[in-house]
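Field log, afternoon session.

UNIT: design team B
ACTIVITY: writing a sequence onto a fixed backbone
BACKBONE:
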């Protein structure tokens, strides 16, 4: 080691310093290992990790965005994998978070099969009217169906069990999705299923490295940006102050949604107490809700602070076939308002969770459970509201068993 350090002084190169430091680390590690202090760690794993840390400043670190871009095939096989939510089908798509989960799952299936990913969405609204392609053109054109055969695949709810052997990786996905145009109806997040696949770290590396929050944020921003129409509507929102405090309050059954099951029923005093304590010279206030009466109460209580978005309160999962532009516009305006809030309060709903995942900050996020607001984060919100964004555990009972088996193989 002494000779190596003398050589460093002569050459004075950064690579030599790295080599010398690596040798020092090796000596220290071997000493610790001989004393059984670190006998529980594989030497190669520790040395490799430390070397990676040493060279991090020399070589550019791969960002999340780079990792996502590198997972996109350079060349596609023939055919298309199409997330489908259309008026022609009798299959229900669910709410906005259900649709985002379906889009994500279809996107991953497209990566695994190396087919082009597209979105065919005209149920309740034409998706392109509110969201435009950002870095990837996902727009569906009916003319592609003329180039080859097409088939519908219903992976909604319990019907998705039929495909589990293929999704797990026990069978070849290409032998399940055999058509030129594969129209997939799906409303579950299958992240845990994909993570159980052999070699998933090679095929789609980011799905094993990222948390749910980062998966949704990176994929959403890769695929989408506000359309010109939505951008104009967002820019027209009147904001008088430098910051915005927001809440998403999913009430459920109400006068404007009489057929919806009851949801959040806690006293609104909890919310009013938070808003009352905020500096009214600093904070505008915003509430996204499915209850018209709640908005009226908030507007009456904070007439000079409340921001109101255009459109009509409703739920896209409850709309009949055809377009409802007013409900859809309000949904997207509310969604982007929540994404850009400085303070965000959530109730139990996938809509609010999705906004929290995509949000640009992790600070000042609170989960409303019972009479209290509990501090939470993009990385813990799914523990607070289990089942709102992910496939229910009972849907795929063998996930844990298969995942553990694959982990043992990897060791």
């Amino acid at each position: 080691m002494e000779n190596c350090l003398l050589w460093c002084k002569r050459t004075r190169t950064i690579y030599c310093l790295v080599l010398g430091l690596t040798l020092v680390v090796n000596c220290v590690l071997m000493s610790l290992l001989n004393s059984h202090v670190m006998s529980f760690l594989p030497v190669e794993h520790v040395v490799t990790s430390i070397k990676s840390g040493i060279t991090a400043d020399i070589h550019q670190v791969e960002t999340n965005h780079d990792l996502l871009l590198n997972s996109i095939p350079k060349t596609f096989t023939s055919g298309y994998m199409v997330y489908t939510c259309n008026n022609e089908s009798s299959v229900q798509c669910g709410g906005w978070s259900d649709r985002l989960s379906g889009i994500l799952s279809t996107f991953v299936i497209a990566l695994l099969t190396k087919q082009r990913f597209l979105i065919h969405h005209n149920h309740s609204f034409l998706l392109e009217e509110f969201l435009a392609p950002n870095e990837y053109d996902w727009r569906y054109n009916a003319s592609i169906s003329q180039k080859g055969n097409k088939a519908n695949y219903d992976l909604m709810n319990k019907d998705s069990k039929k495909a589990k052997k293929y999704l797990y990786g026990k069978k070849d996905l290409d032998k399940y999705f055999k058509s030129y145009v594969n129209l997939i109806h799906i409303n579950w997040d299958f992240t845990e299923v994909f993570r159980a696949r052999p070699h998933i770290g090679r095929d789609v590396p980011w799905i094993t490295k990222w948390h749910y929050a980062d998966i949704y944020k990176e994929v959403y921003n890769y695929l989408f940006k506000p359309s010109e129409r939505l951008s104009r509507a967002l820019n027209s929102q009147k904001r008088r102050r430098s910051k915005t405090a927001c809440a998403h309050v999913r009430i459920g059954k109400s006068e404007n949604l009489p057929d919806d099951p009851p949801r959040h029923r806690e006293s609104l005093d909890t919310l009013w107490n938070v808003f009352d304590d905020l500096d009214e010279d600093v904070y505008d206030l915003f509430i996204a809700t499915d209850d018209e009466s709640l908005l009226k109460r908030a507007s009456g209580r904070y007439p000079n602070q409340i921001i109101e978005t255009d459109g009509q309160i409703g739920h896209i999962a409850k709309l009949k076939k055809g377009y409802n532009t007013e409900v859809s516009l309000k949904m997207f305006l509310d969604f982007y308002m929540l994404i850009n809030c400085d303070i965000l309060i959530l109730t139990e709903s996938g809509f609010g969770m999705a906004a929290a995942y995509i949000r640009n900050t992790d600070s000042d996020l609170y989960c409303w459970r019972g009479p209290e607001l509990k501090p939470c984060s993009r990385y813990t919100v799914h523990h607070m509201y289990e089942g709102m964004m992910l496939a229910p555990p009972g849907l795929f009972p063998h996930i844990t068993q298969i995942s553990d088996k694959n982990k043992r193989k990897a060791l």
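LOG NOTE: DSSP finds 17 helices and eleven strands in the chain.
NEXT ACTIVITY: expression trials, pending approval
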